[in-house]
Every structure is written in structure tokens, then in C-alpha cells.
Write a structure and sequence with these properties.
Layout (H helix, E strand, L loop, with lengths): L1 E3 L2 E3 L2 E5 L1 H7 L6 E6 L13 E6 L16 H11 L7 E5 L6 H12 L4 H11 L7 H10 L5 H6 L7
Parallel strand pairs: 3-6, 4-5, 4-6
Antiparallel strand pairs: 1-2
Helix pairs in contact: 2-3, 3-4, 3-5
Length: 162
């Protein structure tokens, strides 16, 4: 397992914004999860490794905007894509700003690979101190991974990673 302070990760992880992802995409990742707006130009990021693209806005049902929300199918697709990651793999997760969608998805993926929600939040906050995970996406991961709302609760408690 790859170490990150006190938590051992089963793979290397970077969480970034789209601009940084464009710089890293050709050289660093073995796997990339791109979380893009539905009207995004997908030619901006062309990773050489494996690539999972999902198209949804950084939104929640509370926003009451006619925007595309992350779906259960999106989450299941991401989890299937990242299921076999190992110590030699380098996962890049990005969205437009690297703050909300990408951090929520990274939390879910870390929990999928055996980290407790609190450990996953600590890793994400170390990698992206400005993290503000999308609550809707966390709720979807909570349901699929049977975490009983743990990710949703931790996202609302900034001290969880301290």
C-alpha cells in the first residue's frame, strides 16, 4: 500500500482542477476519473491511461436548478472503473475546480478500497485542503457502499480530518 501520512493508500492519488489535470494527464496517471459539465469539451483532457468520464454538474437536488445531477449509474460506473486499482496505479480524479465533485468522488473511491470514512476524509483534506465535497454525490456513495450516511456527516464536520 502507498503511504499518506498515517493512512496507507492502496494506490497513489491526486485530486485536481481541470487545468492541473490537463498538465498531468499525459505523464502521471494510469487511471483518470474526469467529472465534467455536460456541455464540456472533452478534448481538453486526453490521458494516456484508462479514462472514466462522467457528465454532471456540481449541483444538488436542493439547488432547484435544471441541471444534470450525478446519478446512481455514474457512481456505479466510477466504482467499477476503480475496483481493481493496486499499489502500482496512479489515480487522477478531477473536476472543473477540484473542490466539490472530485473530492466527493475521491472519498467514495477511498472507502471502496477499505478506508474508513474518517480516514478517507483525512486523506482528501490533506490532498485538497479547500475540499468541500458535494453532498449529493456523498449520499450516493453512502448508499452504494452501505456507509449509513457516514460520508455525508463527515462532510458537514470540518474537524473530522484534524
Amino acid at each position: 500500500m502507498v503511504g499518506h501520512k498515517d493512512v496507507k493508500l492502496p494506490f497513489r492519488l491526486r485530486i485536481t482542477d481541470q487545468h492541473t489535470a490537463n498538465k498531468l494527464a499525459r505523464a502521471w496517471p494510469t487511471h483518470t476519473v474526469s467529472l465534467l459539465d455536460p456541455d464540456c469539451d472533452t478534448t481538453l483532457v486526453t490521458p494516456d491511461g484508462r479514462w472514466c468520464r462522467c457528465f454532471f454538474h456540481d449541483s444538488t437536488p436542493r439547488d432547484r436548478l435544471s441541471r444534470t445531477l450525478a446519478s446512481l449509474e455514474d457512481i456505479q460506473r466510477i466504482l467499477a472503473f476503480t475496483a481493481d486499482l493496486g499499489t502500482a496505479d496512479r489515480l487522477l480524479v478531477h473536476c472543473y475546480a477540484g473542490i466539490s465533485r472530485s473530492t466527493a468522488v475521491a472519498l467514495g473511491i477511498l472507502c471502496q478500497h477499505g478506508l474508513a470514512p474518517r480516514q478517507a476524509m483525512a486523506v482528501v483534506r490533506r490532498l485538497r485542503p479547500m475540499a468541500s465535497p458535494n453532498i449529493h454525490i456523498l449520499g450516493l456513495f453512502d448508499g452504494v457502499l452501505a456507509l449509513d450516511g457516514a460520508l455525508h456527516l463527515l462532510a458537514n464536520y470540518r474537524g473530522a480530518a484534524d
